[in-house]
Amino acid sequence: MSFSAAVVTVSDRAASGERRDESGDTLERMLLEAGAASVSRAVVPDEREQIASVLRQYCTGNRADIVITTGGTGLAPRDVTPEATRDVIEREAPGFAEAVRMGSLQVTARAMLSRAVSGICASTLIINFPGSPMACRESFDRVRPVLGHAVELLSGARVECAR
Q: For residue 97, what is the domain's CATH number?
């Protein structure tokens, strides 16, 4: 199934041009390999209102079926991606964030520091990922098997259960 996607990189340094957006590049490539027809990109600083504004745009005007954020999910004072995501989502979809954390815990105990969330705004699925390219690859591998089915369900298509 083809879908549209967006990657929102949350990073003060990437937003100022001080650092290259390698995590965004990684996620764009993986989304295209997973069947995305298009992948939009945005880079924003760690500012709650700016993050929420971009997420809202991808859920309404520049509609994407799936939005993946990268960065800003930890314990640092400027890590506000989960709060911005909660400002936007209408319904939680916690299984995605839980699967990412569970898989990451098999790699590093630092996964416990993640405050990532996932949920739905309109018919767009939003999932928070960590900020490093390697963590993005590992996280994406956890959710990839169900993305197509999630998009079908959110589109309102009648989907038969196939265990």
A: 3.40.980.10
* CA–CA dist 163, 151 (Å, integer): 18
Domain that holds residue 27: 3-154
pLDDT of residue 62: 80
Q: What pLDDT digit, counting tens, does each position of 81-94 carry?
A: 999 999 999 999 99
Tokens 């569970």: give the residue.
102
Residue 75 in tokens:
């314990």
How many domains is the chain partitioned into structurally? 1
**pTM of the prediction?**
0.95
Token pair recorded at residue 45? 């600083």
Rounded-to-integer distance, Cα 16 and Cα 127, Å: 24
Average pLDDT, the chain: 95
